[in-house]
Design goal:
By secondary structure, this protein is α+β, with helices and mostly antiparallel strands. The chain is 31% helix and 27% strand. The protein has 8 helices and 20 strands. Strand 5 and strand 6 form a beta hairpin. This is Nucleoside phosphorylase domain-containing protein.
Length: 370
């Protein structure tokens, strides 16, 4: 065989091997994230960070942002797809943002927020969406900004026969507490037919509300790990609350559903409220609505914000939640089938407030919570 042919064949083999090596290097995974994705992450952090992280539960709450002229997608890296989530990059009013949709409920919201903060340089989080209303002083369409959030679906379910004075299982070990109170099912239903013709307590007994276990990062991430703390009420950023109170009060919001004659009794308002409550429960029950309002002082009730708040609390990142009321939880208002009728206006109101708030953070360079 001609020597030149042999050399060309050898060169071709080398090229193939090198190409395969380059391909493998480009796709080699570090954990479940590829090397290429890590390079893209480093690039967007270098070119665009620090970002305001925008966290939204559902597509119908995100789509109005994508269609808004206020949101300008990045021309270099418009998005990155990581582990089933799409992180969208752009600007709102001069502020660089990274936006991600979580999906429904606490697990999705917590996982997605943790992934956002683990991957990207984020100086703060703004979370928005719709919510049920537990505060009858407010109206559908009002946009609430809660000072603190709690997760209400972590329980210690007490056995039948035990009372409020009975120590809970594992309470002595510090795992559970009776300090936050309980819902006793017998307060809402009793069983007739007890011995002597009286009434006996409901065998479901009581559920005692519990704080979350958290493991906050300290000392710039260099503190001792596995230092357990408990958190029930998680405060929003005092700095973000002050900005919102100064700049958003009196903001004009639409009274009627777009393109229809379905209108609210008055123009919606941006309202700062004391407490919001989240759970892995869609609350459409008036009795439970009244209970959580009287026991915990909740105004918005929904399924994600407390998870976002808890992750932000653990990592020391400031956050604010903007939730527009779509219905009186459990019904009872004079507006009929509230959630179906007013979903659109509630979602748009939350988006409008978020779009006005985010540019106010363009000059804010704090990277830790207050």
């Amino acid at each position: 065989m001609d020597a030149g042919v042999v050399i060309r064949q050898q060169v071709a083999v080398v090229i193939v091997v090198l190409a395969a090596a380059v391909l493998m290097a480009a796709t080699t995974a570090e954990g479940f994230i590829s090397g290429k994705t890590w390079r893209d992450v480093r690039r967007v952090n270098r070119e665009g960070g620090p970002f305001v992280g925008l966290v939204v539960p559902n597509a119908y709450e995100m789509d109005p942002v994508l269609k808004s002229p206020s949101f300008s997608p990045s021309h270099t890296v418009p998005y990155l797809d990581v582990q089933g989530r799409r992180f969208r990059f752009g600007t709102i009013g001069g502020q660089n943002v990274v936006m991600v949709m979580t999906g429904l409920a606490m697990l999705n919201a917590g996982l997605t927020t943790q992934l956002l903060l683990s991957l990207f340089k984020v100086k703060g989080i703004v979370h928005w969406g719709i919510a049920g209303n537990a505060n009858e002083d407010l109206q559908i369409g009002d946009v609430t900004i809660a000072e603190q959030w709690a997760h209400l679906s972590l329980w210690n379910w007490q056995r039948h026969g035990d009372g409020p004075e009975t120590e809970l299982a594992l309470e002595a070990a510090g795992d559970y507490t009776r300090e936050l109170g309980a819902l006793n099912f017998s307060d809402f239903h009793t069983v007739v037919g007890a011995v002597g013709g009286g009434q006996q307590g409901n065998t479901l007994n009581s559920i005692w509300y519990q704080p979350e276990e958290i493991f906050p990062v300290s000392g710039g991430g260099g503190g001792a790990p596995e230092q357990r703390q408990h958190a029930f009420w998680v405060p929003a950023s005092a700095r973000y609350l002050a900005i919102a109170g100064e700049k958003l009060e009196g903001m004009a919001l639409p009274t009627c559903v777009n393109g229809t004659t379905t209108c609210l009794p008055r123009a919606p308002r941006v309202v700062r409220v004391s407490r919001g409550c989240s759970a892995n429960v869609f609350v459409d029950n008036a009795a439970y609505r009244r209970f959580v309002r009287s026991r915990f002082g909740c105004s918005p009730v929904e399924m994600e914000s407390a998870a976002v708040a808890l992750v932000a609390r653990q990592l020391g990142v400031p956050f604010l939640t903007i939730r527009s009321l779509s219905d009186l939880a459990g019904g009872g208002s004079d507006l009929g089938n509230e959630a179906a009728a007013f979903l659109g206006i509630a979602a748009q109101n939350a988006v409008d407030v978020m779009l006005k708030f985010v540019p106010l953070l363009a000059g804010d360079h704090h990277h830790a919570d207050d």
